[in-house]
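hiii, so i know i said id send this last week but things got crazy w the move. better late than never?? heres the sequnce for the chain we talked about at the cafe, plus the structure i predicted for it. fair warning i was half asleep when i ran it
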Amino acid sequence: MKLIFERSVPGRRCSILPACDVEETPLPESLRRAEAPVLPELSEQDLSRHYTELNHHVHGVNCGFYPLGSCTMKYNPRINEEMAALPGFTGIHPLAPAHTVQGCRRVLELAQQYLCEITGMDGMTFQPAAGAHGEFTGVLLIKQYHDARGDKKRTKIIVPDSAHGTNPATAAMCGYQVVNIPSAPNGCVDLEALKAVLGDDTAGLMLTNPNTVGIFDENILEITRLVHEAGGLCYYDGANLNAVMGVVRPGDMGFDCIHLNLHKTFSTPHGGGGPGAGAVGCKDFLKPYLPHSATLDGVGHIQVRAFAGNFLVVVRALAYLLTLGREGVPEAAQNAVLNANYLMRRMAGTFRPAFDRICMHEFVLDLSEFKKETGVSALDVAKTLIDYGMHPPTMYFPLIVHEALMLEPTETESRETLDEAAEIFRKLYELGHKDPEYMHAAPHHAQIGRPDEVQAARNPILRWTRA
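okay and structure toks below
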């Protein structure tokens, strides 16, 4: 399709501005551009058609099955969007006097109360703008705690090899040395490997549970006990909380701080660069180091973002929690687990799971043997799924599984959808044995065919340049 700049016609407009009713004051010459900005000039119809065409190129949860593992791409009820669009929430200013924003303050207080109850934490901030930002804030809590006690020798953060890639990056950005430990054959933390790296230089452990291969670590209490005995703290990556919310609490597992992806678990649409929120919770002893939300606690001595963060994301989360209630929150988690196990078993006899055991919210397929038999890779399967109206699952992650496809069906998908997905995977399994060349060239019926990914990675075209 054409870029919006390529659709531009000089002099074409789509709005009529009223005559200016105040005295015009020209900008000082020092603030004026040397050249007028290059902006697209379009009619209203041109603009409408452009965005409609863009929409046809996008696959969202509203288009079809979206089993992107580790990302929790679930349907978000429209009622939450309506609540976030109320003028009383959208029309406020962050510097408005406190007595004029009591409803907004109540939203933050209730959301904090409910999320602390769900996670087993004692305090929470909504300042972080995204999950990785929440990780960064959580690890800084650990750093502040050790520094305040004068314990400067704690320079290492332990990160399992099945962790999200942001975990080691976050630890490094906070100035820590990252210590990677391998997984045991069952996909969980290797206790002996953990014991071997613990010491008086351990600042903490970063972990998500259930982990990235979709397994709840049965040794979690032992893991957190060992880290605490070594003097370290335990950080919980909340990326996979959708599988256990309302059922088991990270605080009860022994974790000291946590970040929540409100845009994964608590109903803000996920993707497209935002909006997101990485709310951070902690136990009492870490609360003195917690960034404060200006509208709740006054301006604290620690800030990681202005004011209360992405406030409307919190509104969505609260609407979601109030809708589900005490019974609905764990039911959503249980249905997510049920759907993942159902789909994994419905695919039996085709692609093999990397860990053939009961999973939580997601599972990982290992296509190594399939690739040896057919020459068809996990990438080929993912690309062919596009022709069947399904968004590909997460590819080649986690790194501990070769030729990995990670699927997370979420609780909002119906049994009929899961049956259809299993049938599509069965067809692709057979197609890979019969006609691998077809899959090497897929997708065949999408808006865009298979790009030259090596060329795109090495020589990306990141911006339009006027001829």
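btw The first helix runs from residue 4 to 7. thought thatd interest u
miss u guys!!
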